[in-house]
Amino acid sequence: MRKPPAVATRLLLGLGAPDDSVVGDLLEEYQSGRSRLWYWRQVLSAVWLSSLRNTVTHPTRTLVSVATGWTTLLLVFFTLGDRSADALAGWLWHWNRQTAYATGIWWPFQICAVVVSYSGFALSAMVVARLNRRHSPSVLVAYVGSVVLVLSASAAFLEILIRRNGAVPVPHGLFYIVSVTLPYHWRSGLLLAPAIVLCVGLVTSDSYRRTRRERSFLKP
């Protein structure tokens, strides 16, 4: 028996398949000869439609959950962002700001700022998932979508400003949100930040715990 792509299957089950018949139909179609790409497309479509349906049904809950995630990010980055990045850079490379201003050596801070940025996104995903245990799949997808939207818009906006005005000052709390989308970070955050939010949120949520339905579906 052909086993379907495990990651896609876990996404389908973890983010809330509409019902058992959808899972069974996808498995049957895949075993009849459908490609892995077809399976992935169907899984992503099912997840998106299910989340969209839940969002439309409960818009207030979704908005509050997304706002909670972003509030967590801003609070963490404005209160602990610089402190955490400076402390980590100092511990790893004995770096400090006074020396950096004199020598122009900022790469230890830049590396540690990336770690702080992704850690903040991971923490926000945990908060969103744990505060919405019963409805975490739909709100998690909504939060991931908001992260993609905000980071993409920020990258485009900053690119326009940089081309017109050169360097653009960014408040340090916001810096940790947008820095991973800047060119010197290869805009890695446009992919990694949503992926981290999705993976951490899934692992944290109750819906990811392996149920009897999942075990019977995945076993050979």
List the helices and strands and how they pair.
Elements: H1 6-14, H2 20-31, H3 36-57, H4 59-93, H5 97-103, H6 107-131, H7 136-165, H8 172-178, H9 189-204, H10 212-218
Helix pairs in contact: 1-3, 3-4, 3-7, 4-6, 4-7, 4-8, 6-7, 6-9, 7-9
Concise overview:
By secondary structure, the chain is an all-alpha fold. Helices cover 77% and strands 0% of the residues.
Descriptors for this entry?
0% strand; mainly alpha; 220 residues
Give a description of the structure:
The protein is an all-alpha fold. It folds into 2 domains: 6-57, no CATH class; 59-207, no CATH class. Helices cover 77% and strands 0% of the residues. It has 10 helices and no strands. Helix 3 packs across helix 4. Mean pLDDT is 85; it is low at 210-218.
Query: Quick check: average pLDDT?
Result: 85
Give the N-to-C terminal Cα separation: 7 Å
Unreliable spans are 210-218
Provide the domain count: 2
SSE class? mainly alpha
Query: What gyration radius follows from the Cα positions, in whole Å?
Result: 20 Å
Main pleated-sheet profile: none
Quaternary arrangement of the chains shown? single chain
Give the proportion of residues in helices.
over 70%
Instruction: Enumerate how many helices there are, as a single number.
Output: 10
Total E-strand runs = 0
Shape: elongated
| Binned strand content | under 5%
Which series of helices and strands comes N to C? HHHHHHHHHH
